[in-house]
Structures are given as C-alpha cells and as structure tokens.
Amino acid sequence: MVELEQALSSRCLQTVRAETKAYGLTIALTVILLWAGSLAFLLSLDVPSAQTWWVWPAMLWQTFLYTGLFVTAHDAMHGGVYPQNSTVNRFVGSLAVRLYALFSYEKLLKRHGLHHQHPASQTDPDFHDGENQNVVIWYLQFMKRYWSWTQIFGLMIVFNIFSRVLHVSELNLTLFWVVPSLLSSVQLFFFGTYLPHHEPEGGYQNQQHRTQSSGFPIFWSFVTCYHFGYHEEHHEYPQVPWWRLPTVHKVLSQQPEVPLPAYSVEV
What we know:
Number of helices: 10
Radius of gyration: 19 Å
Number of domains: 1
Distance between the termini: 35 Å
Low-confidence stretches: 1-8, 258-267
Shape: globular
Largest sheet: none
Order of helices and strands: HHHHHHHHHH
Strand content: under 5%
Mean pLDDT: 87
Number of strands: 0
Structural class: mainly alpha
C-alpha cells in the first residue's frame, strides 16, 4: 500500500513537471499582459467625469495583478516559468520585477536564495530583526531592506514621463499605478511572509523550513496571494509553480506520511 501511495505521489510530481514545461510560460505571459492591458485601460479613463463606484474595485483588481507580477518573477527564480531554457526563464522574471517596481532580478534572486537556505532566521533577509515581531514594524523593516533610493528616483522619473510627456492624468497614475503597487507589497508581505513565517505559540512545527501553511480553501488561497499560503509546500518543492501548489497541498494533505520525491531548486 505504501509503495502504491509513493508511486501516486511520484506520478503527481511528474505531471506537475510536465505541465510546468507546457504551460508555465503561457501563464506567466498572460499575467504580465493582463497587468499591462488593465493598466493601460485604467490610465486612459477620465476618472473625474465618470461614476466613481468602480474605482476601489479597479484598484483592488490592479493590486491583484501587481501581486501576480511579483509571483511570476518568484516562480522564475525557481526555474518554474520556462524550465526548458534558463535564458528565457530569467528574461521573463526580470521583466516582471522591472515592471513591478524597477527591481533588479539578480539582487532579488540572491536574497531569495538566502531566504530558502536560512528561513525565519537572522540570516533571512525577509525575517524580522529578532526583536520587533510586530507586523507593522516587520513590514517597514522588510520594505527598507528591499527598496533603494535608485528605485524611488527611477519611479519618480517614470511617473513624470507619463504625466508630463504622455499627458496621463496624475490622478489615474496615483489610483491605478502607485497605490496598487503599495497595496500589493502589503499583500505579498502579509500573506507571503508574515503569516507563513511568524513563529506560532509553541514554536515551529516544521523546523527545517520554519514555516506553516494556511488552511484557506483553494479559491481564497488564490485570491489572497496566488496560493502563497501553501507555503510549507512551496519550501519543500520550490520549483512547483504557484498554479500547481494546490495539487501538492492536496497530495500531502491526503498522504502526510508519504513524502513526494525530491524536487531540485535553482536558488
């Protein structure tokens, strides 16, 4: 019986690998194009003369797509966008984080490698300082570690090019470009770092990865942060892309005593 369960688990992971090769690039490009198309449409609207009830839903929608950009880059860091070709994989990841907030893909890749090697420790660049576990202070420290003045000035230049050269409304830029990117950083931090890696009462159950998964149903797992809530599964099998984490979560939930085969990681 155990051998049968192991065979089923192995087959599951083989299927995930095959699907990643077949659909990973398409899904990544779909997220990027959705973000770009939605942003272009929202920036073209005349907000002051239109009904405003839709502004908040539109901002939340754009926030969700911003989060998708970063998650796409994160998948690329683990070779999960286009595993057949590392050059294409890295190009898509780099494009996604540049569009997100002018981040350097190589710098993020290095820091994310440290996160996986030393999760929830003082060597982990995503972790708190060891003293302030308060969610707000942790978030501010998190942002300080990843943002640079070069990025901020670069984004200011982009804002002014759109506003003064391309004559895009500053109100639209603020509502649909600036605010969603900031809200996305909160979403990514809270659901992708704080909830998975804050130390619960009684300590971490998983001492290797020092993380825990959420109990969200698949729909809410997707809405909250592209299944980043299945974080223990991600750390165990980091090359599984976000859209297949529910599959791994389901297999491990049904067969907790039978581990899936090893899955190599790029970072």
